[in-house]
Amino acid sequence: MRSIDRKKEVSRSGLGHEEEGHSKVGSSVASPRNRLKRKSSLLLAALAAVLIVFLLIGGGGNLLAAGEGKSLAAKSLAMLRDPLSILGDRSPGERAAGARRWRGVRYARARRFEAPQPLEPWPGVRPAKAFAPQCPQHFAGPARSARTQPPGYGEDCLALNIWSPDGGEAGLKPVLVWIHGGAFVVGAGDAYDGRELACLGDMLVVTVNYRLGALGFVNFGEALGLPAIPSNLGLRDQIAALEWIRDNIEAFGGDPARVTVAGESAGSIAVALLMHARSAWPLFAGAIMQSGAASLIHDRENSRRIARRYADLLALNQGDAERLRTLDLTQLFAAQSAVAREERNGIPAAPWFDGDLLPASFEAACAGATAPVPLIAGATREEIRLFEVMPGDILPTRWAELEQLLRRRLPAGDAERILAAYPRTRRGRRALATDLAFAMPTRHFAHRHAADGPTWLYRFDYAHPLLGACHALDLAFLWPLPGPLGMLIRGGPLTGGRKALADRLRANWAHFVRHGRPRTDWLAYTPTAPNIRLFGLRDRTVEDADATRAAAWAGRDVGPGFLAPPPDGPPPG
Question: Which fold has domain 44-394+432-539?
Answer without folding.
Answer: Rossmann fold (3.40.50)
